[in-house]
């Protein structure tokens, strides 16, 4: 089997060998064992389920919450001539039906599905008929209530297991504490614990906490002294724009990115940064997931993260090419206090949550006792403005309601037009007789789509054009006409989040918020924040060791290159000025790498590396894109 796995890796990806832990994990899966793999950002998690899926018969079902990542993975697989499909919100029932049929009867090797879709009767029925080789759960920390990004829909994954008891589960995550790892295996019904954990050490990544009351000035210094591309993470959308503008005003090619921008605009800015047109992208945490840009030289956190898990993932987007990169936190005196106060915003009072609940149903025009199963395009900012909620408060309240099973707010995605008839069938018959110009169009809708009288149904304008013989402009005109006559409610196609109501509307006093989703999770969030504050406040322990111990690695060793390690070395080491002088003289003659320096100068390798590290930290020398050291002029 090992030879076959290497052949697949070589044939489809062109690699001669697996990265650390990949082969061991793949062999565990191929042996039919439930497996959890903790592999940091950039460790090659997709290979871990894609290779065994190609080695085994049947379809690999991949549960992932990230629609953008879904599409990226499918594009990559199809470029390799591997048949892959996806099911997510916004697709028409006919498309979902076709894809599931292909998975049952066709040659589909990978089916990507959002967790919110797995509990539908349509999917469960077809899943039972599929020949399934593997159930892969990406971002598996989302299943744990003690993880930093809990999503209730993940809890339903275990319901699939009895339908294919022999199929192994592979759970993947980039960051999970030992407590969360145990919870993941419990929630997914692992038959026996089987964990592969890659070290969380990143030898090429230099962690730095820089205390300053002038973050703008420090950011300019980093941009000036560290060549290459970078990411600057901030908390708010407004700050992405103002900080990017500040960098541009100082001659730095910068752009901004946040979740409130349109899809096309975000894609353009992301592509400009990936191609190097923009050197620095200033972004909220909406940016970066699934982006594999190897040559990011620095990630700066202008504001504190809510947890070390989130920080580690975001910082880990630097230096994926294995070369030296920097992860810098800019810390001012009041940052820790502000971060702690954010917990109050993340967990609004339960009476506020109930007020948001009532406002949401009023916004959608749904009465008590109705609404179960309704899905609607949702504009958070319009909703918050109309009902005078602070946007973060509204979003966090919806998150708490989602965790309690009342609704689901999806990520932004392509949403087709949706139609629902608001007249009775007998009234519609009379309209078709009286308004002959509408009869053919209504007939096409009724023959092609079911459920139009009970719920909003996704429709395809292109398909209606084909079936009706009308032009696209005429189809849209007729939809508007039906809406103006109060025959249908019509939601035009868009790219927006969807709000899906999973329960009927209750009186506000009957809305129950469980302790697990509120008080206990608030306590967990406070502990995670405290860990982040301890990390940035620490000036005694190696920063890499702090991170590794947080994730359960008790045998961690000092990295030697973070700001704490360098400060400790400068306090204890006697500087070898003669060696430093010889290094600078050699580099003035010509740039060269460390190996060439060792052979040319003839010094002890460890002492020379220490001297080079100190000179790099002092910015007297720099490392170029070619890996060579040179004088910083």
Task: Describe the secondary structure blueprint for this structure.
Blueprint: H1 2-13, H2 22-30, E1 35-38, H3 45-55, E2 59-63, H4 67-79, E3 84-87, H5 93-105, E4 110-113, H6 121-129, E5 132-137, E6 169-173, H7 178-187, E7 195-197, E8 205-211, H8 215-225, E9 229-233, H9 237-249, E10 254-257, H10 263-274, E11 280-283, E12 296-301, H11 308-315, E13 325-331, H12 335-346, H13 350-364, E14 375-377, H14 380-387, H15 391-403, E15 407-409, E16 413-415, E17 418-421, H16 425-434, H17 436-448, E18 457-458, H18 461-468, H19 472-484, E19 488-491, E20 494-496, E21 498-501, H20 519-537, H21 543-550, H22 563-572, H23 577-589, H24 594-601, H25 605-617, E22 621-623, E23 629-631
Parallel strand pairs: 1-6, 1-7, 2-4, 2-5, 3-4, 5-6, 8-13, 9-11, 9-12, 10-11, 12-13
Antiparallel strand pairs: 14-21, 15-21, 16-20, 17-18, 17-19, 22-23
Helix pairs in contact: 1-3, 2-3, 5-6, 12-20, 13-15, 16-17
How would you characterize this protein structure?
This protein has 633 residues and is of the alpha/beta class. The chain has five domains: 2-197, P-loop containing nucleotide triphosphate hydrolases (Rossmann fold), CATH 3.40.50.300; 205-340 and 524-558, 3-Layer(aba) Sandwich (Rossmann fold); 348-414 and 498-517, Orthogonal Bundle (Arc Repressor Mutant, subunit A); 417-492; 573-631, Arc Repressor Mutant, subunit A (Orthogonal Bundle). It is built from 25 helices and 23 strands. Helix 10 (263-274) links the parallel strand 10 (254-257) and strand 11. Helix 5 packs parallel to helix 6, helix 13 (350-364) crosses helix 15 (391-403) and helix 16 (425-434) packs across helix 17. The mean pLDDT is 88.
